[in-house]
Amino acid sequence: MNPSAQALQATFGNAIGRVVDARGETIVYVSAAKVRDVLAWLKNTAAPGYDYLVDVTAVEYRDRERPLEVVWFLRSLASTQDLRIKVELDPRGELAVPSVVDLWAGANWLEREVYDMFGVTFTGHPDLRRILMWETYAEGYPLRKDFPLRGRFSRSEQVRQALNVNPEGHYSMEELAIAESYDELPAEMRDRLARGDRARIPNSE
Amino acid sequence: MKHVETVKGSDNWLTTKFTSLVNWAVNQSRANSLWPMPFGTACCAIEFMATAASRFDLARFGMERQAFSPRQSDVLICAGRLPFKLAPVIRRIYDQMPQPKWVISMGACASTGGIFDNYAMVQGIDTVVPVDVYVPGCPPRPEGLLYGILMLHKKIKGEDLFDPTLRDEHLLNDKGLRLEPEQIDEISEPFGNSVHQFRSA
Question: E strands, chain A, where?
Fold first, then answer.
């Protein structure tokens, strides 16, 4: 059992739910309202400090009664200790948890992936867009249990929408390494990038 | 060479139709100096690399130069599954290739979607670009790809250059599709083990 679990219970009291030991890994359930404070405390105050965010992901179970879980995998590089923080959400309710991008910059794309696949909103995220599916993808959140394996639209509609995406629109200025040299780009390229037509499907009304 | 007759009693004369001579000369040259544009997305690309490397040696069939640029290539080899996100990319690459151009669909996933009968995958690249040769296999061995390339050679040698529709550009129609929606739905219809899964569940 990771000693940080007891430290969390001592510090946050009721905000900490059950603590589970799963094959040597410690899982701490935290209330959604307090999870940001808990994660910030674990990074900045706890000894050892959990300076490395390994992964952010989510789990939805086949059992409809079980809550959807958002999981943070933390690691302390100095003491090589691992800790899992979980928040339980009602899959039929609003799915929102606070973002931790300001604590760990690496959370940016991880949270975007969870948003893309599960529809969990990370409040306070600087740039919460889809990351794996294209941004105009309208069929829903593919890893949710109510999502049909082949998607919601017919195959021809899927092909039509996919073919009408502008492939150059997948990349925003921030993601391009040439963002700093934007002013020195050829005018035509600057115009194309600035148009921001990545969220627009041609041939659609 | 078809339609060629040696004049009796002489080895130095032959008669043929002009069109046959042109077809023969041009098609032989084209078939034997194809420049491939590899579009490798998955494990088929590993087999493609093996095909191009010294043991199997694509260069023996005139494919010495791998053209990693659509403008300088003749045959697009889609090696691997094609996600919907890459569909506009392969379409643009195909449109950028100058005529004459051909497409080889390498492997089960490129040809049919393969095991990926899901929300993210194109169910056969023929719903996006026209395909000349389908190579089955998961992934095909280099011999399989070579056989497909030789089949393409055969197809090229049989082309009639005087057919005015031969080099038509098959652009996307006003619906933004290559085929009619019903055709795409029919091509994408699940088969094999996939028939036990349903769209609604």
Answer: 16-22, 25-30, 52-59, 68-76, 81-89, 96-98, 121-123
Out of A142, A160, A167, name the one closest to residue B176 (CB).
Answer: A160
Say which residue the tokens 């087999």 belong to: B47
Q: What pLDDT band is residue B103 in, cutting at 50, 70 and 90?
A: very high
Alpha carbon distance A46, A164 (integer Å)? 50
Helix (H) or strand (E) holding B142: helix B142-157
Above pLDDT 90, what percent of chain A?
A: 33
Residue written as tokens 């499907």? A201
What does the pLDDT average to over B181-186? 88
Same domain, A51 and A24: yes
Q: Is A21 exposed, middle or buried (0-12, 13-18, 19+ CB in 10 A)?
A: exposed
Give strand ranges (E) for A113-192.
121-123
Regarding whether A179 and A158 lie in a shared domain, the answer is: yes
Q: How do B5-6 and A81-89 pair as beta strands?
A: unpaired
* Number of domains, chain B: 1
pLDDT band of A92, cuts 50, 70, 90? confident
Q: Which domain holds residue A101?
A: 3-132
Please list the alpha-helical segments (H only) found in A67-128.
107-118
The alpha-carbon gap from A157 to the nearest alpha carbon of chain B, in Å, equals 8
Measuring CA to CA, which residue among B92, B51, B93 is closest to residue B69?
B93
CB pairs A-B closer than 8 Å: 79
- A54-88 pLDDT, tens per residue? 999 999 998 888 999 999 999 999 888 899 999 99
- Smallest CA–CA distance from B83 into chain A, residue: A162
The CATH number of whichever domain residue B40 belongs to comes to 3.40.50.12280
